[in-house]
Design a protein that fits this description.
Largest sheet: 5 strands, mixed
Helix content: 55-70%
Number of strands: 5
Strand order of the largest sheet: 2-1-3-5-4
Strand content: under 5%
């Protein structure tokens, strides 16, 4: 924290502390709820890797989870349940304190990691905007990033995206400090470490390195291509990711399909693309409609050229990201976590303009409009996001607890769920198959010991003619596939 004290006044420290403190409090809402809310499937897959670290040791080169099916890869079997997505930095941060300290559940430690990441991003955003504009704009950017309801919810989910945002903002901040005075090589190496981490967490963070490219161009001009330090930074930022990807190729069954994220359904630049990204997500879900005027004002605002181009690099990064990763951004709203710094910056610019009001608009009126926009933005944003906290399938939690007490820990389970959802396996704490990827007799040959049918229908009871029905309730049926009826 020493580097912050050197450049932040006492009043700013108090204001920033209050933003972070209340941001922390709000992110504790339903803190101890089970991971069965919005995007539970992706969250439990992340948390499952951490559970396996705790149970089997911290083998970061062989992360594992519950799903043994070929659904993630689409082709290859995955008998060991490998999970090769992001490098498991997030899982280490979640599992290590649980293993060493305990106190909280492993799910709660995951939320702590995300909360601290989200608040760290707020602080970094403040420092970046302050340096390139002024302290008020920095505080306002931190305020919006912290209190937009979309960011409150996703700022406490068990996902690596918030940590990715922290990593690439830290990269920008420390790179900016280094390039301002390139004799400070410590800042260079800190930026490099964060850059490598961000790419290992999410290679999409490469889109958000555009501000770094702009800063380098601003200082070195066309000679930036001759700078050995910049080449070192560029190469070493992506080299660990390349090694990680080459290592992953040895385990194709553990690599989920990802090509479809680009434009798998050919939605890019279609009317539906613009509707979902700009109307449903940015305008409605994130900005609650009333934040949109602030965003537009921020984009149109005239700034000194250097500041304008620097902030524009954030905007262009975000636009490139949503356009290139078109299907992923339309399919999953949590993909927009990565563009939240850009949105916070531009609504802060718009808000700062209305507050200072150096135009001919009546000052109390412009400030009144600003406060009204903020109040409605946060209110409607909460209205749109509140359902994300709901747990719609308590039967998965109840079933998981009962099944965990009934069957051996090493048992393999078949739990056919829509689309191959692995949430049920997570609450049972058992590896298995989340779909009938093959006929049941073949799954038994592959090691399946039990079958669970959630929310059973009348025809599901027919399986008891072939397999022993071990447990029956309105929530689920449990069949022993190794015993005859």
């Amino acid at each position: 924290m020493k580097f912050i004290k050197q450049i932040v006044t006492r009043k700013e420290m108090i204001a920033l502390f209050l933003i972070l403190f209340f941001g922390f409090i709000l992110r504790l809402y339903k803190f101890n709820a089970p991971i069965a809310d919005w995007h539970a499937w992706r969250q439990v897959d992340t948390s499952a890797v951490s559970r396996f670290f705790v149970k089997d040791g911290f083998d970061v080169l062989h992360p594992r989870f519950y799903d043994l099916s070929n659904v993630p890869s689409g082709v290859h079997e995955n008998p060991q349940g490998y999970r090769f997505v992001e490098f498991p930095f997030y899982n280490l941060a979640q599992a290590l304190p649980y293993k060493i300290i305990g106190v909280l559940t492993i799910e709660e430690w995951g939320r702590i990691v995300t909360i601290l990441s989200s608040l760290s991003s707020s602080m970094l955003l403040y420092l970046i905007v302050k340096k390139h504009l002024n302290s008020r704009a920095g505080l306002v950017a931190a305020f919006f990033f912290t209190f937009i309801p979309f960011n409150i919810y996703f700022g406490r989910t068990t996902l690596p995206d918030s940590s990715t945002v922290t990593a690439f903002l830290a990269t920008i901040y420390f790179f900016d400090r280094w390039i301002e005075k390139d004799s400070l090589k410590l800042n260079f190496f800190i930026a490099l470490i964060f850059a490598a981490i961000s790419v290992l967490l999410k290679p999409f963070s490469l889109f958000f390195f555009l501000p770094i490219i702009y800063l380098a161009y601003e200082k070195y001009g066309k000679d930036l291509l001759k700078n050995k330090w910049l080449w070192t930074f560029a190469i070493l930022s992506v080299l660990p990711f390349i090694f990680w990807r080459l290592w992953m190729l040895q385990y194709p069954g553990g690599i989920p399909q990802s090509g479809w994220l680009l434009n798998g359904n050919n939605i890019r630049f279609k009317g539906a693309f613009f509707h979902w990204i700009f109307a449903e997500r940015i305008s409605k879900l994130i900005l609650g409609y009333w934040g949109l005027p602030l965003l537009i004002i921020g984009v149109l605002l005239k700034l000194p050229k250097k500041n304008y181009l620097f902030f524009l690099s954030f905007l262009v990064s975000s636009l490139l990201y949503v356009v290139v990763i078109a299907t992923g951004n339309v399919q999953h709203d949590y993909y927009q976590i990565l563009i939240m710094p850009s949105i916070a910056i531009y609504i802060a610019l718009g808000a700062n303009f209305l507050w200072e009001n150096k135009s001919n608009i009546y000052l109390p009126l412009s400030r009144g409009i600003l406060l009204l926009c903020i109040a409605f933005m946060l209110s409607f944003g909460w209205f749109n996001i509140r359902a994300f906290y709901n747990i719609d399938h308590y039967e998965l939690i109840r079933s998981g607890k009962i099944i965990d007490s009934l069957i051996p820990k090493e048992a393999k389970v078949v739990v056919p769920m829509s689309g191959g959802d692995t949430t049920a396996l997570y609450f049972m704490d058992r590896q298995g198959w989340s779909s009938f990827e093959k006929p049941l007799p073949q799954l038994i040959k592959m090691g399946a010991d039990y079958m669970v049918l959630i929310n059973p229908q009348k025809q599901d009871y027919d399986f008891q003619k072939t397999y022993k029905l071990t447990y029956s309730s309105s929530d689920f049926l449990l069949f022993n596939l190794r015993e005859l009826p």
